[in-house]
Write a structure and sequence with these properties.
Layout: H1 14-36, E1 61-63, H2 73-80, H3 86-97, E2 107-109, E3 115-118, E4 131-142, E5 146-155, E6 158-169, E7 172-175
Length: 180
């Protein structure tokens, strides 16, 4: 328990923590879908095969559909930053948006600035994601700026106790750990 010099509790209440954790984990589901699931919907396409020695190519970018909820990398980042901390997202953004020698990112913007998705990457089915039991939530640590909780999550038929970390940013609490 964190007390100030005057003896007053300075962290959020247990009920506030419970509500915040549940709201953020639920808000994380569509964000996880963008990065680890089916991704932002794209226009109809056919998988292209490589010519020459290789039977497949490592990437194929297809424009997102006009009715997709996100039309730019900036819009994806804005949505993600309402749920997760900037520090956590730094690693996510690396694989989602940055081209390296060995990796084609999940998303790129074409020469006209339109959002495209690499349809050659395979990701988790939402059926494989963790299902959280919020009734098992216990607060491990709580300060004005940091909260750690433990709760049970079921993944692939196995139930385990997991730790989630939240950090307070300028405009509210954000998840600092994965929830998929």
């Amino acid at each position: 328990v964190l007390l100030t010099a005057g003896g007053c509790w300075t962290g959020p209440s247990e009920e506030e923590i419970r509500q915040t954790v549940q709201a953020l984990v639920e808000a994380a589901e569509p964000i996880n879908e963008i990065f680890y699931g089916e991704g932002v919907p794209v226009k109809d396409y056919e998988i292209e095969e490589a010519d020459g020695l290789s039977s497949t190519v490592d990437f194929q970018y297809v424009s997102v559909s006009e009715d997709a909820p996100y039309q730019s990398i900036e819009q994806i980042k804005e949505a993600a930053e309402q749920v997760f901390t900037e520090a956590y997202l730094a690693g996510v953004y690396e694989s989602a948006f940055v081209r390296t020698e060995d990796l084609y990112p999940r998303y790129a913007e074409d020469a006209q600035g339109r959002l495209t998705r690499n349809v050659k990457q395979s990701f988790k089915s939402t059926d494989e994601w963790t299902e959280w039991d919020f009734s098992t939530l216990t607060v491990v640590k709580s300060t004005e700026r940091l909260v750690e909780v433990r709760l049970e999550g079921t993944f692939a038929g196995r139930t385990e106790t997991e730790t989630l970390r939240l950090e307070k940013e300028a405009d509210g609490w954000r998840l600092a750990s994965p929830t998929y």
